[in-house]
Please model this.
Amino acid sequence: MNTRILAVDYEYLAPATLKEALSVLGEKEGVKILAGGTDLITMLKTGSDANMKYMLDVKRVPGLDYIRYDDGEKTLHIGPTATLSQIEKNDLVKEKYEALSEAISLMASVSVRNMATMAGNICNASPVADSVVPAICYGAVLTLASSRAERTIPLHEFFTGPLGLNARAADEMLTDIALPLPKPNTGAAFFKKARVKSDIAKNANRMRDIPIQKALIRFKTLLTAIWNGSIECIIPSIIIKKINAYALKNIAAFILGKIIPSHWYALRAI
Ligand SMILES: Cc1cc2nc3c(=O)[nH]c(=O)nc-3n(C[C@H](O)[C@H](O)[C@H](O)COP(=O)(O)OP(=O)(O)OC[C@H]3O[C@@H](n4cnc5c(N)ncnc54)[C@H](O)[C@@H]3O)c2cc1C
Model:
């Protein structure tokens, strides 16, 4: 794998505008979008993306690397070529979406984060994609654009299968990631269970809209919150809505024992 040889013969395309990129996607078959390339190039080296005929480099399209907050919508928008480093260091992300900033800081290495994008992390649709867990927790909505139309889809509906399958059509590109401002008195925290920091996650949990103090006062409230879906557990690519008693007990113990003590401030308990 550690070679400069790509096991695929392909044509490299560098569109100057988003419109141009979308028409390439609409007109040609076998197009693969290149953002940071940290997943795609690895796959090309191993030959696991052998059907690619065109590499569409969207990193050079101006204006797609934005991170901006829309005060009217009360929503943060992240562009498809904004790098993980840009997102991680953004002041608003650090302040209001700290679980995302934290998750990204635990991904790979600085050099990978300087290249890689959140859009690539989402579209690669790995079951252990680290930025996906907090993004689902914050209620992220994706915009998928093609030369035919534009549509939005909640991130938690985007993944359609365990092997990197997703709801994106071949002529669509992810053009925006929208993160609504978290509700008052709610908080989120990210905890990555892995051998070393740069490892892929072994387990990721998310917490949403749970009155933390109540949960602490009554262990049973926490169990109920997990049971009824206020806290959902994401275990590689499966969002578990109903879980068995054994998993429930383990997740509750993990949240109480690890996440809450180490992330109390991030959880912004009421
Ligand atoms: C050493 C190393 C360590 C890593 N560690 C981690 C880790 O700890 N956690 C983790 O989650 N990941 C990790 N990764 C995986 C990878 O870095 C991330 O998934 C990264 O965010 C991918 O982004 P990218 O911009 O490089 O995507 P690319 O490789 O450019 O693209 C990935 C896929 O998404 C598609 N794509 C990209 N942008 C779009 C778009 N706008 N619309 C539609 N499709 C698109 C591409 O066609 C491709 O199929 C690691 C990778 C490496 C090489």
About this structure: DSSP finds 13 helices and eleven strands in the chain. The CA atoms of residues 65 and 82 lie 4 Å apart. The domain at 11-57 is CATH 3.30.43 (Uridine Diphospho-n-acetylenolpyruvylglucosamine Reductase; domain 2). Residues 32-40, 42, 80, 84, 107-108, 112, 115-117, 119-121, 123-124, 129-130, 168, 173-174, 198, 200 surround flavin-adenine dinucleotide (CB under 6 Å).
